[in-house]
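INFO  loader      accepted 1 record
INFO  loader      residues=241
INFO  predictor   begin
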Amino acid sequence: MQLAAWALVVVAMSALLGGVAQSSLGFGAAFAVVPALAFTAPELLPGTVLVGILPLSVVMAVRGRAGIDVPALGRLTIGRFPGIVTGAAVVAVLPTRALTAIIAMLLLTAVAASALGAELAVTRPREIIAGYVSGLTGTAAALGGPPLAILYRGRDGAMLRPTLASVWAIGLIPAIGSLTLVGEFTMLQLQAGVVVSGFMLLGLVGGARVVRAVPERTIRAAVLWWAGVGGLLALSRAVFG
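INFO  predictor   done
INFO  writer      dumping tokens
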């Protein structure tokens, strides 16, 4: 598979933005990369993003390990594993075009919820449910962050960033394994994911300087605008071809 030069630039820039967002907000890498791939190369979803986010998540979890909320991590993980199985089943039965449309609609819904400030009271049952939904959407659409971002909106970033990173680090390998078992993870996705992960890590490293210079709300707004426009473009491509 070959991508046009402009498409490669878009994906690379989205991965850099994703790394910056992840370092600042604790989520956002998928928000940045998923719409770029959904519009330019939907056949690379969701595996490429899952591979790309894995090294980023491990680095963030290790770097912020002192702030991890271990009980919350356990409850989220309990819910996430059955969600992963459900997500892999969804990918196995849907054709690429239908999956792209669903991914785009999920993305736009998540953008709207984040922009409107949707928030829930955190309870243990809701953490398990959010973990399940995150596992499902994360495996099927590489969008596991929005359900947890909504649940933990307003939480201290020093806790949120490493805790969510640990959720991804633990859950991404089973997600990739489940997709492999149903024949929906390819060598091309693996190769593209390795490249994407490099740009994400560059964004993470450079993100420390960006975070000091740019307010968090500005980074959040930039990611939401990017995801919203990309989601609309991906949906139009899926619907009209």
